[in-house]
Amino acid sequence: TPVNRTSGGRPRLVMLLRRHSRALTNEAEAVAAAAEVGFEVVAAGPEAVRDMAHFAEVVNSCDVMVGVHGAGLTNMVFLPHNGTAMQIIPWGEMKWPCWSIFGETVPDMGLRYVEYEATAEETTLKDVYPRDHPVFTNPVSIHKQGFDQLWKIFLDGQNVTLDINRFRGVMQQIYQDVTVT
């Protein structure tokens, strides 16, 4: 059920925070941006899932889940019906692989799905590889080298620094979708 903005209710958003690969390097700013839009934000690092029963209750109390592609997004199974799952897709032509793992299943779960695809400016790979490297000019060529290379570079080898203004815009759209006036 959409949250009624006129009654003062705030939709809840759980933000999954990673600590090693695919971490948000500006997670505090991302949490603040979601809160500024109007969400009550629950920041959930890996330690939050140690008590799975409690974490399931937390997720079930939220309208929206946001996280960078990874196993933590499987917790979307605890979102309530009509909840929204937003997957942040890391750089590297990862849209289809990420969608096929998480996005494809969302409608059958009674959830909405939103993607935020990281740009070359938002990946920490720009600090490791020159812009004329295949990581930027032809990421699919890395995929064709096999899953080990894809994993090493695009999944295990990068973090994401969100463009906060762009992220805020996506948060505003989701906020509009999960609330009514």
TrEMBL record:
The keyword Disulfide bond does not apply. It is found in: Golgi apparatus membrane. Keywords: Glycoprotein, Glycosyltransferase, Golgi apparatus, Transferase. One of its GO terms (molecular function) is pentosyltransferase activity. It is a single-pass type II membrane protein. Pathway: Glycan metabolism. GO terms for cellular component: Golgi membrane. Pfam families: Glyco_transf_61 (PF04577). InterPro entries: Glyco_transf_61_cat, Glycosyltransferase_61. Residues 11-82 form the Glycosyltransferase 61 catalytic domain. The keyword Transport does not apply. This is Glycosyltransferase 61 catalytic domain-containing protein.
